[in-house]
Amino acid sequence: MEWSSYSFFLSSSLNAPSFFLRQSTFLSEYLPLYIRLIILGLTLVAGIYLFRSGHVVIRHEERPSILVTQGVFHYVRHPLYLASILTYFGVAISTASLFSLALGVGILFFYNYIASYEERLLEVKIGDEYRNYRRRTGKWIPKIRPN
């Protein structure tokens, strides 16, 4: 089982008490269920797309020996982490739970720390090619490039 599966299980497990603790879900009174479910659906679709598209670096028998900049990596540098983050926030919004939101923020900080660490390693290993890739590609949000 992969980390994203574990973390989704953890997120779901920690959401359960929020349904019983009314204090954490009071926001649901202000955001209709159908809007929360639409947001959940959109984040899940985006997360699944990023997750499947980002697996190019680990799906093959051998990992690519070059820097992958095609596909979803053309837009964001960490699509697998972004897929998990979107899923967490989709769940947090759909449950309108402050506990879920706090967990999502914690996970965002964790993934940002891990991604920054990996980027430092890639700069040492790949050098200028990775620095150029970093300049033109967003970490979490695609950069808008003038044509």
Briefly, what is this?
The chain has 147 residues and is mostly helical.
Question: What features would you describe in this structure?
Answer:
This protein is mostly helical and 147 residues long. It has one domain (3-136). 67% of the residues lie in helices and 0% in strands. The chain has helices at 3-20, 33-54, 56-59, 79-95, 98-126, 128-136. Helix 1 runs parallel beside helix 4 (79-95), helix 1 runs antiparallel to helix 5 (98-126) and helix 2 (33-54) runs antiparallel to helix 4. The radius of gyration is 17 Å and the shape is elongated. 22% of the residues are buried. The model has no long low-confidence stretch (mean pLDDT 82).
Fold blueprint:
Elements: H1 3-20, H2 33-54, H3 56-59, H4 79-95, H5 98-126, H6 128-136
> Which class do the helix and strand fractions yield?
mainly alpha
- Cα(first) to Cα(last) distance is 42 Å
Kindly give the count of domains. 1
Biggest sheet architecture: none
Q: What is the general shape?
A: elongated
Please state roughly what percent of the residues sit in beta strands, choosing from under 5%, 5-15%, 15-25%, 25-35%, 35-45% or over 45%. under 5%
DSSP, total strands? 0
Overall radius of gyration: 17 Å
Query: How confident overall, as mean pLDDT?
Result: 82
